[in-house]
Design brief:
2 domains, alpha+beta, 31% strand, 434 Repressor (Amino-terminal Domain)
């Protein structure tokens, strides 16, 4: 599903609910505690839907976020990554783009899942087997789900995030780089909390 298709689906569902509830644009803006102009740009496709927009509109319509986002979510592409990594501090900043992916099948509030999810795009050919343009989607606070063989983004002391493959040995965590010539890292298992599990790869 293309990015524009997903945004159109959200807009269609909002418009349908507005029609059912006989709400004007101004009515929904008031109920959602949103600026009338911003809501107008969202519904006209001139501005992308972000999580806080969807949450506000869902509250205004009296429905769940999951009823608006369908089976796909848009994940912010926060940075590009190469052999040297990516600035982990980019997470939460202005995204480069958005990637549409199947909605993760998790228990709990879908809004919380979306809020913890971000994507990083492969910049060049220094991270085999991934080609430039491949998007890797990760979930923050997912260290309790990490198993041997999983890929993770690991935040180093210098603030750089690096893509690693996870292994375990004698109570230690081994993080192996996918890039040739990069030294593996060994650390206590408790340091898994510095890792975000990669949950989806979009080629």
């Amino acid at each position: 599903m293309k990015k524009g298709d997903l945004r159109s689906k959200i807009t269609e569902r909002v418009a349908l609910e507005m029609e059912k509830q006989e709400l004007s644009l101004r009515d929904l803006a008031t109920k959602s505690k949103m600026d009338h102009g911003n809501l107008s740009r969202l519904l006209s496709g001139k501005r992308p839907w972000a999580l806080h927009h969807i949450e506000a509109v869902a509250t205004g319509l009296g429905c769940l976020v999951s009823e608006l986002v369908s089976d796909y979510i848009e994940v912010p592409v926060v940075a590009e990554i190469d052999k040297g990594g990516f600035p982990y501090t980019a997470i939460g900043g202005t995204p480069l783009d958005y990637a549409s992916i199947p909605r993760p099948r998790r228990t709990g509030r879908i809004a919380e899942v979306i809020a913890k999810t971000y994507a990083v795009r492969i910049k060049d050919d220094t991270i085999p087997p991934f080609a430039p343009g491949t998007v890797l989607v990760a979930e923050q606070e997912s260290h309790d789900q990490i198993k041997a063989g999983d890929m993770v983004f690991y935040c180093r002391d210098n603030g750089q995030g690096s893509l690693r493959k996870v292994g375990f040995e004698n109570g230690s965590v081994i993080l192996t780089s996918l890039s040739p010539g990069v030294e593996e890292l060994r650390m206590p298992r408790k340091h898994l909390n510095l890792c975000d599990k990669v949950i989806f790869v979009k080629f």
